[in-house]
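Because discrete structure vocabularies remain unfamiliar, we turn briefly to a single example record, giving the amino acid sequence and backbone structure tokens:
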Amino acid sequence: MTIPLEQWSINISIIKNSLLWFQLLITSLLSSSFILFLLIGLNLFEQQWEDIPASFMVALTISGGLFTALSLVALIMFRHGIPTLYVLKDKHIEQHTLSGGGATKTVGLLGILGIFSGNNAAYTATGASLLARSREQIAVEWKDVVSLDVFPKNKEIYINNEWHTTMQVVCPVESFEPIVQFIRDKTIHKIEKKQASKNKETPFAFKVMLSFLSLIFGLFLLPRLPIHYVGIFSIASTVFALFSLWSSGLKQRILAAILSLLPIIGCTLAFIMGEVTMQQSGAIYALLIELFLLGFFQFLGLGIVFKYIK
């Protein structure tokens, strides 16, 4: 197979880099979510339900401030763009950030984005390697590619694994089509094989995230809420969620089926026993959060039962 262009250098604009801005936004939202979890948890445990809207506003303000700060850093450090070198190999593609000084200075400020990498050996490729690694280089092996997104208008290719975009390839205008064809030829059979697999498991990182949310949401259901979902049901929901996520086969589906029934049984008993109260100030906010938490466990169970999550 002939390589269309073994390597090329290109200066990548920050302003027009939609992947960069999207990842900065997601980073800001996820970072502020930890503050939101803490504030909401305090509101629920201390029965200060009327403060729930204020907690959301605080988290949203923090998210906006963080996004603004990261955006300013990116614009200042890379206002002239990012000189980047791409190298095509028979088994992988390499991306080298050439602006060593500027990139290195931003590692501490933008390194938080690396948290979302699904590759243990690499940081997330933000835009065209805004995240400078210690070696200022990332590589993606063709065998690890799950899907490709091609954008002819911008002359860009997004290389994706099961979890996220691992590399953004920006091509010269005159060489875009040959490069796209080369990458497709290198990955098409691997992509088709992975997509055709009926036993494809849910990505490990996604299952870890669901496990973390199960623990947090189960904890949030422990205090007395408008619908009194008693403690034993809260603990059972968390336990069955964790076992369902990390089991397999028929056992996994049985545990998931029980998990999906627990919110229904718990709420039904609360209504029968008259353990539903809406008199306290802010009860409507607490009720909405409780329904969201219960819905999470129910849909998690159903997702596993119907094999959307494996």
User: Anything to note?
Assistant: Confidence is low (pLDDT under 50) at residues 101-112, 114-135. The first strand starts at residue 7 and ends at 12. Residues 204-305 form one domain.
